[in-house]
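Notes from the pairing session

We agreed to fold both candidates in a single pass and log them together. This is the raw record for the first candidate, unedited. Please don't reformat it; downstream parsing expects exactly this layout.

Candidate A
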Amino acid sequence: MEALIKMGEMKIDGFINPGHVSTIIGERAYEFISTRYKVPQVIAGFEPLDVLIAAYLLARQIRTGEAKVENEYARVVKPEGNEKAKRIMEAVFEPFDVSWRGFSVIPGSGLRLKEEFAKYDARKRYEDDLSELSCDYREPEGCRCGEILRGLVYPADCPLFGTGCTPQHPIGPCMVSIEGSCNILFRYGRHRIGV
């Protein structure tokens, strides 16, 4: 979220934050975004009513000029999160720099197993097999998934969308995942936008 804001490619009016992640990290983990960047946020669940309420709460903050974290998913997400899970994660994992699809390297944004858990680390355990694979991800020619992920273009703006790139023949990662923007638009909305 901070990387998106710092990139400065678009004006971000607010965030609807994911309930599943927030269940672990809690609502307080997001406060610096609202405080530092004056961006409103609402943590939401996954039911249609959750999303609708979150959109309303976010719109209300934007209209009133507020910038805070509201927790629509309070039935599951606590301010402090899941303390036991966070302690376990802190004991087992350490942050490291990761290159994310559509972004450059974001410092400290990934998690890897600490050295004392190296025998469980698939990256180390299968290092020889994995060395044959390229870890340098490059989008296929014509694919605009990186821009879609950053909110700069809509899936329909990609020249591959719905022609060469479909759920049955995905070319880019936004079409591969059933949660991907392109996949969702292809399955549920493409006729409504004239694609």
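Candidate B (folded immediately after A)
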Amino acid sequence: MMGVLSGKAVILTGASSGIGKGTALKLAEASARIVFTGRDGPRSDETLATLRAMGAAVELVRLDVTSEADWARVIDTCLSRFGRVDVLINNAGDAVMDRIEKLPANAMNDLIGVNVDGPFLGMRAVWPHMKKQGGGLIINVNSVAGQRGNVNGSAYCGSKAAQLSLSLTAAAEGGKDNIRVVSLHPGFTLTEGLEETLCTQPQMLQPMIDSMIPIKLPGRPADMGDAVVFLCSDDARNLTGIEINVDGGMTAR
């Protein structure tokens, strides 16, 4: 994939670890120019150092996704460094999982702030610049949880379902300006956080995978990165308003 995104300027949120970091590494391999954000200071700095060691043109900007002022600063950084914004990847997100009667009253509002308001503000901030330059791509990283209900997921699934509707509506609006919008849905993915959670009970991992994933392979952050690189490439120029699942067949059942 070397060079397939050469010259393209990408904004990626939530890249300090997990799917975001895996995506950042794949973007760098494809020669994209990257402005990324992350909440975890040390991990964000580690991602920055790794990308620079790969020879990537990259900037790190601190971002609260619910802040219009922060979003303006991210966009300004990308424009001043690279002169344009070709791709926005709204990857930053949050989750709270519990039975509906045990969730705090503000659980839904808190998740809506990060999972819906954040992508909305990002799209709103980048939209006029993409429109002016003749088009662009927005990828909203969702979850299979945004497509169906899950036990303990009323707040999380609800917020992700709202994000999916936002993505589809934005795609319908963006077509006339050549602004594509795609919703990316990871399934069971082995991120650092999940591996840390499972490390005390590794015997649970394979039975969990066998029961959930038809192809019996867990997703890895690099798998999401590969899908993102394809979507950012010219080969995907006719893809918009769609849901792309990278889930090993989880949602085929």
